[in-house]
Specification:
By secondary structure, the protein is of the alpha+beta class. It contains 8 helices and 20 strands. The strands form 6 sheets. The chain has a 5-stranded antiparallel β-sheet with strand order 6-7-12-10-11.
Length: 339
């Protein structure tokens, strides 16, 4: 049964801890709840925002519409063979809890994505990734409700148009579909990926043998906790900016002036440059401006120390973008969505 509420605070429902409110608010726990909601004529033309874990959104104002909190739960094996298990997961499940569940079951593929905040439904929207792994590598399909027709739809891998931290749901089909379930194809005989970042270094220090999904997951968790602030302690949304991709020609030209600029080839003619490095070199790391600032350990993370507004964080992000562009001629794009 749907319970529609009015003037609900969203402060505890976004990881920045921004104190804003929603004109209307409702939680959905099933496909049927969602279809019932879409049939309510009084709300048909009210602006709508789907909220999962609130970990990739920056509220710059009160939301004068309907916030729909996706609470659809459930984890089930829908198919398996000797090599793989296909696992169907409710969009409202907590992402990190799903990863830990899969590690416990010895299903490989998600362990490098440990401790990423948010819910399962947001994972394919963002094509979340970390430590050399992206969701598109284990994604099988997703189910969604078309908000225009109320019908259930199934999106296969090729339908999602996955890119770097993006998909069709973030741009072309933004707002039209509400994801209800995601199915992943996981490996029963895992191939461990420890080459990226500090994972192998961390494993060497702890002398963990033999390597297991849990040891890789534990290493990722340890690394993330050492670099990124806990949203329960300091408001943040993790990485605020995407790592920019520039042409090889531009990168080579910049290297003549900035010899220590790191870069990682992503295609024959493009190079990815770490946004955190650019921001730190531009002098922003650890800077605080009243109640908001740039984290002291990771320049890629903007934080709310308490009482900050979304407008203040947005203004800070724009200053950082302008500063990096002025120094390097590189445009930074945000991972976080502004509301």
């Amino acid at each position: 049964m749907l319970t529609l509420q009015s003037n609900v605070s969203l402060r505890t429902l976004n990881t920045f801890g921004i104190d804003v409110s929603a004109r209307y608010f409702v939680e959905i726990n099933s496909d049927e709840d969602l279809q019932t909601l879409l049939q309510l004529t009084d709300l048909r033309h009210v602006p709508r925002l789907i909220l999962g874990g609130g970990s990739n959104v920056l509220f710059t104002r009160n939301f004068e519409g309907l916030v729909v909190k996706n609470c659809i739960k459930g984890i089930e094996v829908v198919q398996e063979n000797a090599e793989h298990s296909w696992v169907r997961v409710g969009a409202g499940e907590i992402w990190h809890e799903l990863v830990l569940y899969c590690v416990q079951k010895n299903w490989g593929g998600l362990e490098n994505l440990s401790l990423i905040p948010g819910t399962v439904g947001a994972a394919p929207m963002q094509n979340i990734g970390a430590y050399g792994v992206e969701i598109k590598e284990t994604f099988e399909q997703l189910e969604a409700i078309d908000t225009e027709t109320g019908q259930k739809c199934v999106f296969e891998h090729h339908d999602c148009h996955f890119g770097y931290r993006e998909s069709i749901f973030k741009y072309q089909a933004r707002g039209r579909y509400i994801i209800t379930h995601v199915t992943f194809r996981l490996n029963k005989t895992p191939v461990l990926n420890v080459a990226y970042g500090d994972i192998q270094k961390n494993l060497d220090v702890t002398d963990t043998r033999p390597l297991t999904l849990k040891s890789v997951s534990d290493a990722v968790i340890k690394i993330r906790r050492s670099k990124l602030p806990d949203p329960a302690e300091i408001g943040n949304a993790g990485s605020f900016f995407k790592n920019p991709e520039i042409s090889t020609q531009q990168y080579d030209a910049l290297k003549t002036e900035f010899a220590d600029m790191p870069g990682y080839p992503t295609a024959p003619n493009t190079v990815k440059v770490p946004a955190g490095w650019l921001i730190e070199q531009a002098g922003w790391k650890g800077k605080r401006f009243g109640s908001v600032g740039v984290h002291v350990r990771q320049a890629l993370v903007l934080v709310n120390y308490g009482g900050g507004t979304g407008g203040e964080i947005k203004a800070l992000s724009e200053k950082i973008q302008a500063s990096v562009y002025e120094k390097y001629g590189i445009e930074l794009n945000t991972e976080v969505n502004f509301v």
